[in-house]
Design goal:
The chain is built from eight helices and eleven strands. By secondary structure, the protein is of the alpha/beta class. The protein folds into two domains: 115 residues, Rossmann fold (3-Layer(aba) Sandwich); 95 residues, Orthogonal Bundle (Arc Repressor Mutant, subunit A). Strands 2-1-3-4-5 form a five-stranded parallel β-sheet, sandwiched between helices. Strands 6-7-8-9 form a four-stranded antiparallel β-sheet, with helices on one face. Strands 10-11 form a two-stranded antiparallel sheet. The radius of gyration is 18 Å and the shape is globular. The chain starts with a strand and ends with a strand. About 3% of the residues have low confidence.
C-alpha cells in the first residue's frame, strides 16, 4: 500500500496504524513522489490526500489511473460535494473525510481487496448487443474492441450483467460492488457515469445501462 500525504504527523500515524492492521505500507509527502513510486514499485492500493504541495490530489489520481488499476482511496479534510464528485470522476474508488477511524478505513480497504479478486466468476461470454463481457478473463469489448475499465467499473458492470433486466437500487449496488452495508450513494452514480462514457455509443442516451427513476439502475 502507498500513502500520499504531505502532513508528516498524519502520514506517520496512518502508516503505523495500518501496519498494525497487517498492511505493508510505504508513504511519500507529494503527488510527484507518489507517481514515481507507483511507477517504479506498483502498489495495489493507494491512499491520496487532495491538498498536496505542487501537483494536487486530483491530478495525482488521474496520473495513478493512467499507471494502472490500483484501488485509489481519497482521505481528505475536504468534504464539499463538488470535491468528492470531482475526486471520484478523476478515478478514485472511494472517499473518506478526515479525521478517519482506522478501523473504518481498514474495513473499506478489505472490501476493495475482496472485490478486486472475485471468486467463482462465470466461464462464459455475456453478450448485450455490441457489448461483450468475459468475467473470467476480466475483459470487456464493444463492437469487438477492448475497453479498459477500472476494477470498480468492471465489478459494477458485472453486477448489473449478472442480473440483467432486474432493477438494482443504489444501496444494493453499494453492497454488491463495494461490500458496504451503508455508504455514500454518489459512489454508484459517479462510477455509473464513468462506465457509460466507456461502453455506450451515446452516454446521454444509454442503451445498456439504464436509469430507472426513483428505483436505481438496470442492464437492458
Amino acid at each position: 500500500m502507498l500513502i500520499v500525504e504531505d502532513d508528516d504527523r498524519i502520514r506517520l500515524s496512518l502508516q503505523l496504524a495500518l501496519e498494525d492492521e497487517g498492511y505493508q505500507v510505504r508513504s511519500v509527502p507529494s503527488a510527484e513522489q507518489g507517481l514515481q513510486r507507483q511507477q517504479d514499485q506498483p502498489s495495489d492500493t493507494v491512499l491520496v490526500d487532495l491538498m498536496l504541495p505542487g501537483m494536487d490530489g486530483f491530478d495525482c489520481i488521474r496520473g495513478l489511473r493512467r499507471l494502472g488499476d490500483a484501488a485509489i482511496v481519497v482521505v481528505s479534510a475536504r468534504e464539499d460535494t463538488h470535491d468528492i464528485v470531482a475526486a471520484l470522476e478523476a478515478g478514485a474508488d472511494d472517499y473518506l473525510v478526515k479525521p478517519v477511524q482506522v478501523k473504518e478505513l481498514s474495513a473499506r480497504l478489505r472490501a476493495l481487496r475482496r472485490r478486486s479478486h472475485p471468486s467463482g466468476a462465470a466461464l462464459t461470454v455475456q453478450t448485450f448487443g455490441s457489448l461483450e463481457i468475459r468475467q473470467d478473463a476480466g475483459e470487456v469489448r464493444v463492437s469487438g474492441e477492448p475497453v479498459a475499465l477500472t476494477r470498480t467499473e468492471f465489478r459494477l458492470l458485472c453486477a448489473l450483467a449478472d442480473q440483467a433486466g432486474r432493477v438494482l437500487s443504489r444501496s444494493q449496488l453499494l453492497e454488491q460492488v463495494w461490500n458496504y452495508d451503508y455508504g455514500d450513494e454518489r459512489l454508484v452514480d459517479v462510477h455509473m457515469g464513468r462506465l457509460r462514457r466507456k461502453i455506450e455509443v451515446d452516454p446521454a442516451a444509454p442503451v445498456h445501462l439504464l436509469t430507472i427513476r426513483g428505483l436505481g439502475y438496470k442492464m437492458a
